[in-house]
Structure formats: C-alpha cells, structure tokens
C-alpha cells in the first residue's frame, strides 16, 4: 500500500492523439537514467478508452512497492475541458516510504524533476500520507472562503493552499496562484527549504525530504512558509 503519491499533470489537447502522446512519453521516460526510468520496464501500448472518458495503464518497478499509473483524458472534439486539474493527463507515482528507504530523498531531489521534464508537466504535487487532507480539515473555514470566490481550483491550476513535500509550478501557475513569477518564488524560498531551483519555465521545490515526517512537522513548515509565499 502506498503512503506516498506524486501526481504530475499535463493539460490534454484535442488535437494531440493519445497514441502519439503516449509514444512520446514512453520514449522520454525510457531515455531517463535514474530510479524512475522506464528503460528496463515492459511498457504497454496506448490504452483504449472504450466507453470511458479516462484511459489508464500501470507499470510496476522491480523496487518493492514502487508503481506508476498513467491516465489520459478523452480527446473527442465534443468533450469540453474545464480549467481544472481533474481533466488533466497524469502520471501518478506511488510507493511505501518504509520500503523505499534511503531512495526517498534522491527521488524527491533528482528523480521527480527529471520526470516532470520528460512528461512536460505543468504541475507536480507529492503527497505524504493523508497529511494534506488532515491539514485542509483543520482549515475548513479558510477553504470555504476560497471556494466561495468561484472558480478556485484548490491546490490546482490557480491556487496553492497546502505545500506538499515536493512541488512543481510553471510560470503560469505561479502567476495565477501567487501573483508573481518563478524567480520571485526562488528568491523567497532560497535558504529556507532543502531545494528550490528553476525547472523548464517554472520552479521545483522540495519543502521537506524527511522520510519520517510527522503531521505536526508538516503543519509547522506550512505555517512557516505559506506567509513567505503570501499564501492564505
């Protein structure tokens, strides 16, 4: 059972066939050298939608508990995409932190940013256990105010409410969610987090790389660093 899940998002495009997108993703992931590379994995053909709006596939690594699931959104021209992350294509990496052991920090620092680049993602959210859900429950009133403002995609394309152990935001997400660009994010977080660096046109941040992270520690770094970023 996974207690760490990392979601990497890519906006679907009607004009981009799933078959060509899948072939590109597979080629890019097989070209990787690291732990999360697909070079030595048996990769399936592009999945079929059948009567569904989501098509999926799964790859299992030889490393205990490590799996990745790929999701594609239906490309039919009559299917209108909303400006929400639920409509995105995704790569979802999952593993049990205890079984990953000493690979945890290298995955956060080196492997995930390489996958973001290979997948050409615009957003990464790496969830430790159910900490984000518990944190949101503690701040229900603030979340209700946000949701009452209309089209706010909490922790999505236009809002950041909780800071996960690892995050990637493009320049566009930074501007929509925080009101300033990636260079300002880097400036504000430099020296305050284990890693913050430019990646493609955005910024990749490791807010915490402790495999034994407690919920109190998760809350503490959120409460300390959200004001630094000007987040509610």
Tally of strands = 8
The proportion of strand residues reads 15-25%
**How much helix is in the residues?**
25-40%
CATH architecture label name of the largest domain: 2-Layer Sandwich
The tally of helices reads: 8
> Which oligomeric form is depicted?
single chain
Would you mind describing this structure in some detail?
The protein has 232 residues and is of the alpha+beta class. The chain folds into two domains: 4-121, TATA-Binding Protein, CATH 3.30.310; 130-163 and 172-229, no CATH class. It has eight helices and eight strands; from the N terminus they run E-H-E-E-E-H-H-E-H-H-E-H-H-E-E-H. The chain has helices spanning 18-30, 97-100, 104-119, 131-138, 140-147, 171-178, 182-189, 215-229, and strands at 4-10, 54-60, 67-73, 89-95, 123-128, 166-169, 195-199, 202-206. Strands 2-3-4-1-5-6-8-7 form an eight-stranded antiparallel β-sheet, sandwiched between helices. A hairpin with a 6-residue loop joins strand 2 and strand 3. The longest helix has 16 residues, at 104-119. It starts with a strand and ends with a helix. The relative contact order is 0.15. The mean pLDDT is 95.
